[in-house]
């Protein structure tokens, strides 16, 4: 049975608050023997147990002076240990914060009041957040304006059409409509709010409509707004910013035209903002921004201590917030589809969790006194953030279109499609700002979630929920059902998350997915015109995909001895070629009422390192109109003899490039 340590040991029993807060600190021990022979308490262990020079120093360094001091930092007071005047740190940047439970004593000794540390809306935490923002503005190149080649007017006017003027504390707020010809729109600094609307939406008295617009331009009653809006207004003022953009107030909610116009410039609204305020832990607009920190009690220690004149107080010790303690579960905002583009396009984000504040910009992350590496931040924030957004837009040298396409398919869309969205009709608008920004840097048409360049790869997506690790395509017997949604070829039409298996296939075979020379595209996009109007990113503008590619046939036959259906390559000359030795993955959809040897159509899309990817099709209209059914891939039986290889080559050679339409 483990014996609990005493609250204080013989070294700490005479500790006073005056001594801890003095420049000289509190003397802990004068020799190694004195330290090692004491019945160490939690405070001593917390300060010294990582220091090998205290526990087992060289003989020449047995005489030491150990002391403990409470010192200020920009994130609050910290307790530090010194050995012979030198700061002891077992890991750079890791410190222990100390607070006092009583407000009066905390103010008298200039020690952080515990409630200030544990409330994200306290002056301590807001000033810390402001210092991060100002440091970024002064030292980084994160705030350069986004440009839109398709919207020259918006480029000249970097400020959104409407903003909420918040002014200073106690000043009346109102909605400002900027003149479309006003040149001073370039000079306005504003914050943006990223938040969850919640299942019940935003209250009517917090929405701008044709009816409320005239009223809101005269003034808005802050007390009638949801808590998240009120907290965001308060924070914006305390950050020294006079304007705030909130979607429900700055876009007329009863005007489809206004929604399409303003929605098409979201990449500019967020990209040109000074900072985005993210209400990460609020499920709806009443959840609030400022929350008491949800601190795990096992991470802190308490110590009862007295002042020199006998007043008692309680010191609380908090270790530096490790990333895993900030967000053990995906926060509410992180599950929301709309929030992805708001984060990717923003130059700076202040994330307000119920376990702390995190600052993110296009160059670094901050949490308390730590600057975290990106790999650590993935423990609580997805890697699709401000830094990802900058890399996506600027891109590397070389084949930039391929690189950006890889980011879109391999990272962005799988993340986005896994998030919650209330209406399927919002799937394009909720990612439109990223698509619009990306379109400025690739010579390709945007086709309802995929890109016209290398379109064979773009069409090779699969349902993530149906992912299987079989060594052969899985046959799915599906009873007759309504036809697939339209357009059937776009992942946007479906309610499940998607991924592109070609990337994992290439990585498994040891190839870098950056190597465009390894992969091959077998489909051409015939209609190469490139729409330039912003609406193309907000809605399905192209429902029929005119392509040129290779249509092949296959049949399903019982496997030898196991009763399972396997593929037989059906050639145009009427012959069948055995492919029982092939392997691969994906799924093939068949009707339980169809004949096992019925012929099925497939479109050769692309080739990875060694696998060939096919789109299973269903012909809906003669001669060449098809709908998407499923995706599967095959890998040639290169170790199964020359005959099998010839069967494969003969099947592929039996196909010619032909025109087809996907609906």
Automatic annotation (TrEMBL):
Matching InterPro entries: HET (IPR010730)
Domain annotation Heterokaryon incompatibility: ranges: 190-342
Pfam families for this protein: HET
Entry superkingdom: Eukaryota
Protein name: Heterokaryon incompatibility protein-domain-containing protein
Organism of derivation: Lophiotrema nucula
């Amino acid at each position: 049975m483990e014996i609990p340590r005493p609250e204080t040991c013989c070294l700490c029993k005479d500790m006073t608050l005056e001594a801890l807060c003095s420049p000289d600190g509190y003397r802990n021990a004068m020799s190694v023997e004195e330290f090692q022979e004491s019945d160490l308490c939690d405070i001593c262990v917390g300060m010294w147990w990582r220091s090998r020079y205290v526990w087992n120093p060289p003989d020449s360094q047995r005489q030491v002076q150990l002391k403990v001091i409470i010192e200020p930092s920009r994130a609050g007071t910290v307790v530090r240990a010194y050995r012979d005047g030198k700061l002891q740190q077992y890991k750079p940047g890791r410190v222990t914060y100390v607070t006092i439970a009583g407000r009066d004593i905390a103010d008298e000794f200039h020690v952080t009041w515990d409630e200030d540390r544990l409330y994200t809306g306290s002056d301590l935490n807001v000033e810390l957040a402001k210092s991060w923002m100002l440091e970024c503005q002064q030292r980084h190149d994160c705030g350069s304006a986004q440009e839109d080649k398709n919207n020259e007017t918006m480029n000249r006017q970097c400020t959104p059409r409407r903003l909420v003027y918040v002014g200073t504390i106690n000043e009346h707020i109102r909605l400002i409509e900027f003149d479309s010809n006003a040149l001073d729109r370039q000079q306005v600094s504003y914050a943006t709010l990223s938040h969850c609307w919640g299942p019940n939406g935003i209250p009517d008295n917090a929405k701008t409509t044709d009816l409320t617009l005239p009223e809101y331009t005269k003034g808005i009653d802050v007390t009638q707004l949801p808590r998240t809006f009120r907290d965001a207004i308060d924070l914006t003022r305390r950050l020294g910013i006079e304007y705030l953009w909130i979607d429900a107030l700055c876009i007329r909610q009863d005007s489809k035209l206004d929604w399409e116009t303003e929605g098409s410039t979201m990449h500019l609204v967020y990209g040109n903002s000074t900072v985005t305020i993210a209400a990460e832990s609020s499920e709806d607009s009443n959840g609030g921004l400022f929350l008491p920190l949800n601190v795990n009690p096992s991470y802190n220690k308490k110590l009862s201590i007295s002042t020199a004149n006998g007043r008692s107080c309680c010191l609380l010790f908090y270790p530096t917030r490790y990333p895993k303690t900030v967000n053990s579960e995906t926060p509410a905002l992180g599950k929301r589809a709309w929030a992805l583009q708001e984060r990717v396009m923003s130059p700076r984000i202040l994330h307000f969790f119920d376990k702390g504040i995190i600052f993110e910009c296009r160059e670094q992350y901050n949490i308390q006194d730590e600057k975290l590496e990106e790999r650590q931040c993935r423990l609580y924030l997805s890697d699709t953030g401000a830094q990802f957004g900058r890399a996506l837009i600027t891109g590397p040298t070389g084949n930039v279109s391929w690189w950006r396409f890889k980011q879109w398919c391999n990272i962005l869309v799988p993340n986005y499609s896994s998030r919650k969205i209330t209406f399927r009709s919002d799937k394009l608008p909720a990612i439109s700002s990223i698509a619009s920004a990306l379109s400025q840097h690739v010579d390709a048409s945007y086709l309802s979630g995929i890109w016209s360049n290398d379109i064979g790869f773009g069409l090779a997506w699969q349902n993530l929920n149906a992912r299987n690790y079989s060594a052969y395509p899985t046959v799915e017997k599906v009873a007759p059902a309504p036809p697939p949604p339209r357009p059937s070829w776009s992942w946007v039409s479906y309610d499940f998350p998607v991924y592109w298996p070609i990337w994992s296939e290439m990585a498994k075979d040891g190839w870098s997915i950056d190597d465009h020379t390894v992969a091959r595209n077998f489909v051409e996009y015939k209609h190469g015109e490139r729409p330039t109007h912003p609406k193309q990113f907000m809605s399905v503008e192209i429902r029929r995909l005119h392509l040129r590619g290779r249509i092949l046939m296959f049949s399903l036959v019982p496997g030898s001895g196991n009763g399972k259906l396997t593929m037989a390559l059906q050639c145009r000359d009427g012959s069948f070629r055995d492919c029982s030795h092939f392997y691969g993955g994906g799924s093939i959809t068949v009707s339980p009422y169809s004949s096992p040897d019925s012929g099925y159509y497939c479109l050769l899309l692309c080739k990875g390192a060694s696998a060939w990817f096919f789109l299973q099709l269903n012909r809906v209209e003669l001669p060449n109109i098809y709908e998407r059914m499923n995706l599967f891939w095959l890998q040639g039986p290169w170790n199964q003899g020359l005959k099998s290889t010839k069967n494969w080559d003969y099947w592929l050679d039996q196909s010619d490039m032909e025109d087809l339409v996907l609906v």
